[in-house]
Amino acid sequence: MEIKSDIVHDATGTYCPIPITELAKVAKKAEKGQIIELLADDEGAIQDVPAWCQTTGNEFLGYKEEDGILHFYIRKV
Amino acid sequence: MKRKAVALYSGGLDSTLAIKLVQNQGIDVLALHFYTGFCITETKRRRGEKKEDGSHYMNPALKYAAKYGFPLEIVDISDGYMDVILNPKYGYGANINPCIDCRIYMFKKAKEIMQEVGADFVISGEVLGQRPKSQKSIPLKIIEREAGLEGLILRPLSARKLTPTIPEINGWIDREKLEDIVGRSRKRQIELAKELGIDEYESPAGGCCYFTDENYAYKYKETMAVEGKITQDDLVLFTVGRHFRLDSETKLIVSRNERENNFLLGFKKSYHFFEPLGKGPVAIAKTINGEILDEDDKQIISNIIARYSKTIDGKIDVKYSFMDREEILTGFPFDDEAINQWRVSLNGNKIRHSP
Questions:
Q1: Do B41 and A17 touch (CB under 8 A)?
Q2: Which of B55, B56, B62 has its CB closest to that of A20?
Q3: Is B286 helix (H, G, I), strand (E, B) or coil?
Q4: Does residue A41 sit at the B interface (CB-CB below 8 Å)?
Q5: Which pTM was predicted?
Q6: DSSP bridge partners of B319
Q7: A77 touches chain B (CB under 8 A)
Q8: From the list B62, B70, B73, which residue is nearest A48 (CB)?
Q9: Which residues pair with B284 in a beta bridge?
Q10: pLDDT at B348 over 70
Q11: Sign, Cα dihedral of B346, B258, B49, B31
C-alpha cells in the first residue's frame, strides 16, 4: 500500500486513548480531504483507529507495520 | 428546529441507553468521553495485557460508540484533573472515588463543549439512588448548580422521578417517553437494552476509571494510612508494578515487565532507583522523611528484585542509584513467603498504620 500523506503525527510510546486524542487534535486542524498518517506502537490502535473513524465520519484508509511501528492512514472528511 | 445535546458517555450500559432514548426522540447527540489520565485500559495496554481471545482491551466508549453509531469525541481533561482528585470539595466515595467533584468537573467541560457546538442541553446516564455517593437526588442538584447547568441536565433513565428539565418543559423532549428507574437493580436497564436493540454491553459495568477499582483504592488507602498524604506521583504509581511496604518510612515498587521498566525509568531522577545488571525488573523506592535509605532496606530490595530476575549461581548484581550516588549490590532471591510480609495488596497484608 503506497499512500502519500499530508500530515504525519507520531504517537508512539503512548497508549489508549492517547493515540486517539492526538489523532483527534490533528484531524481538527487538518483540511478536508487531507490524509493523516498516525504512527503508533500500541497494537490496540488497530482496533481503535477504525472505530474512531466510524464515530467521527472520517475515512479509514488502512495501516501497515514497519519495524514494529504501525502507520495508520486516515482521510479527513 | 432540530435540537442537539451533548452526552456524558462512559461506554457503560446506562449512558448508552440514555443516548438511545434521546436519539429516538429526534435529537442529535454528540457523545463526550472524558480521558482523566486514570484509565484502566491505558494501563492494560501499557502492560501488553490481552483478553483471553487474544484481542486487546478496548476503551468501552470508543467500542460502543462505534458499534451503536454515536458520534463521539474523546476529550482530554487530564491536565486539571489531578487537582480534583487531590482536593475534592465533596470528599471521597466507597472506594476512593471523589465522584461528586469528578462529575462537576466533567459537566463543566460538557457545558463548554455544548456552547461550542451549539447544543441545547446535556444528557447523562445517571440513575437516581444507584451509587451511594454521587447519584442521590441532592447531589444531583448540587452537581447541576456547581456546573452552571441548572435545568439543563437531562437524565433520561430517571427523568420521570426528577423535576422536569428545560428540554422537557419546552417540549423538545417528551417526558412521558423517558424512564423512571430508581435504585441499584439493573432489571429495567436490561429490559430496555433489549427493546432498544443494545445486544452487547460491559457486564458488570466495567468502567475505565481507576478510582472505582478496589485494588487501586486499597493502595491509596494504605499510603494514606501510613504516610498521611498522597502525592501526584503516588496517584500514577498506584497503577504500576508490585507494591511493597518495607517499613513506615519506605515504599517499594517493582516493575512487572519490560514496558513497566520503561515507565519506571521516568521516575529515576527523583527516587531511589534499582536496576539489575542482567535480565530482571527495575524498582523504585520512596522514602518519606529525607533522602536516606538504610543499608538493610537496600539489601532487602536487592533480594526482592533477585526473586523476579534471572539469577546466575543464585544471585544477581543490582545497581543502586540516587542523585549522584551509585553503588553495586548483590541480590539473593527471597522466597515468596518472605516477600509476602511486605506486599501491599488487597488479598495480602492488612493496612499497617504508622506508629
A1: yes
A2: B62
A3: strand
A4: no
A5: 0.82
A6: B275, B328
A7: no
A8: B62
A9: B253, B273
A10: no
A11: positive
